[in-house]
Backbone:
């Protein structure tokens, strides 16, 4: 058995125990040495399994203390659809708030212009999403100001998509999305309730209008223990 299949065996075993309630929230996992003996594997194999468990939001590794099971309270985040946070929040139970952290217009040369493939002025909007008194999402939105004019702070606190569709009369058609796991930044630590996490789930989205024009680029940064990403797939 190669190292990859060995670490996946450990990963799948721990995931099964967590999801079936055998390992409970905040329970400490076996130490690396104990897992090495239990599964007859190397330390590198154990660490690879633990890293994958942490990246997928099942455990948290605390320096000098060990690895602990996270509470599996997550919200469905659809990959296949183009959904505003307001629409998503209406399906959630509990208190939901949006905090507007930055409302700016980029007029000079800026790397984000390449993302939007434009020379126009760009709205730069940072919003923190708070769910049940925890700040767990940082949405960094960039919108083409020529296509989406007259934004206000009030619109951003409510729903930009609602404004685009109901006020501007434009149709949002589709988005291209990319999901990765990244190291947290100082900005994440400042704006989010990041606890002891050292990684974050990053969803990059390029969103287009019905006429095919790219109007929005978004970097949505999620605390990994609170979200699961859902997609419906059909075999053709």
Residues:
């Amino acid at each position: 058995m190669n190292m990859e299949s060995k670490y996946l065996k450990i990963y799948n075993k721990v995931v099964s125990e967590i999801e079936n309630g055998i390992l409970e929230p905040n329970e400490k996992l076996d130490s690396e040495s104990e897992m090495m003996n239990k599964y007859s594997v190397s330390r590198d194999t154990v660490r690879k399994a633990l890293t994958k468990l942490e990246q997928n939001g099942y455990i948290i590794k605390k320096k000098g203390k060990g690895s602990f099971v996270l509470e599996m309270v997550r919200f469905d985040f659809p990959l296949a659809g183009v959904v505003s946070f307001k629409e998503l929040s209406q399906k959630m139970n509990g208190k939901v708030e949006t905090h507007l952290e930055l409302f700016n217009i980029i007029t000079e040369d800026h790397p984000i212009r390449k993302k939007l493939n434009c020379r126009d002025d760009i709205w730069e909007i940072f919003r923190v999403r708070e769910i049940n008194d925890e700040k767990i999402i940082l949405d960094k939105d960039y919108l083409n100001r020529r296509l989406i004019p007259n934004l206000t702070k009030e619109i951003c606190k409510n729903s930009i998509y609602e404004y685009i569709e109901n006020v501007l009369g434009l149709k949002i058609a589709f988005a291209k999305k990319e999901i990765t796991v990244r190291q947290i930044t100082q900005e994440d630590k400042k704006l989010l309730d990041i606890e002891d996490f050292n990684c974050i789930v990053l969803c990059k989205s390029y969103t287009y209008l019905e006429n095919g024009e790219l109007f929005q680029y978004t970097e949505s940064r999620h605390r990994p223990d609170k979200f699961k990403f859902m997609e419906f797939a059909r075999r053709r």
In short: The radius of gyration is 21 Å.
